[in-house]
Amino acid sequence: MLDDYRRRVEQALQTRLPAADIEPSRLHEAMRYAVLNGGKRIRAVLVYATGTALDADLQQLDAPACAMELIHAYSLVHDDLPAMDDDDLRRGQPTCHKAFDEATAILVGDALQTQAFNMLAHETSEGINARRSLEMIETLSQASGSRGMAGGQAMDLAAVGNRLNLTELENMHIHKTGALIRASVKLGALAAPVVDRSVLKKLDHYASCIGLAFQIQDDILDVEGDTHTLGKQRGADLARDKPTYTSLMGLAPAKHRARELHEEALSSLSSLGTAAGSLREISEFIVCRQH
């Protein structure tokens, strides 16, 4: 089922992104390069998995799933820039600013971000009422702004070369990585015919757990992975003197903590029964992945 969701969002992104031959063609070509150049599509899959667990129609999940992927892609393009992490590889290919140029990469991020909100404002209007559409926009804007992903990136940049304790590190990643994962789950739930706020609270706890587990596994792979499999430079965080879960906890305790979070995430889904099968599968994938 997860592969079905990945194929669905790939097709949806193909049709929704501007064609590369439409002016400004270089910008549109770079946008397609940044978005369609592979990726795990975890955030989009979370939208679909959450929505279908709550009886949402797949067609009503396409726009929020695409919006999440556009925001994520914009964040990666900007994260790779020389002023940020200065990375040369992303998903096994040259980063956007290497394949094009820095100015184009900045504009790519800007354009992808605005297109994500345009999708939520217009494409959800037929099957989802205005109040729900507005809540989706509010959720994504907060998750991607200074109180979410962008704020987490600012914390990450400030932490280079400094010592953080585990509480400070967790707070950074709750913003940088966790905010968009929580937003993905919430957007999927908001597309459902009925939104039970008690269920939404349990789903948010699930998302918080897998968001931290995702980052811990990233840190583990930065130590144990290889560049070819990862699609990015192994050991990059160590080279930049970034605080990580493995550097603060050690490799074995970090692995144990990731499994603990996985089990806690599964426990949060107990009331959903078999309908949450895909969400359980995503949590397992996150702590077992090799890239």
Question: What does this protein look like?
Answer:
Helix 4 runs antiparallel to helix 6 (102-122), helix 8 (149-159) runs antiparallel to helix 9 and helix 14 runs antiparallel to helix 15 (277-288). The radius of gyration is 18 Å and the shape is globular. The chain is built from 15 helices and 2 strands. With 291 residues, the chain is mostly helical. The chain has a single domain (2-288), classed as Farnesyl Diphosphate Synthase, CATH 1.10.600. Strand 1 and strand 2 form a beta hairpin. The mean pLDDT is 92. A two-stranded antiparallel sheet has the order 1-2.
List keywords for this structure.
1% strand, 291 residues, 2 strands, Farnesyl Diphosphate Synthase, globular, mainly alpha, two-stranded antiparallel sheet
Count of the separate structural domains: 1
Distance between the amino and carboxyl termini: 20 Å
Name the shape in a single word.
Answer: globular
Helix content: over 70%
Instruction: Please list the strands of the largest sheet in the order they lie side by side.
Output: 1-2
Beta strand count = 2
| Beta-strand content bin | under 5%
Compute the CA-based radius of gyration. Answer: 18 Å
CATH topology: Farnesyl Diphosphate Synthase
| Discrete helix count | 15
- CATH level-4 homologous superfamily: Farnesyl Diphosphate Synthase
Please state the average pLDDT score: 92
H-E string: HHHHEEHHHHHHHHHHH
Low-confidence stretches: none
The CATH class is Mainly Alpha
Mind telling me which CATH architecture this is? Orthogonal Bundle
Structural class: mainly alpha
Major beta sheet, specifics? 2 strands, antiparallel
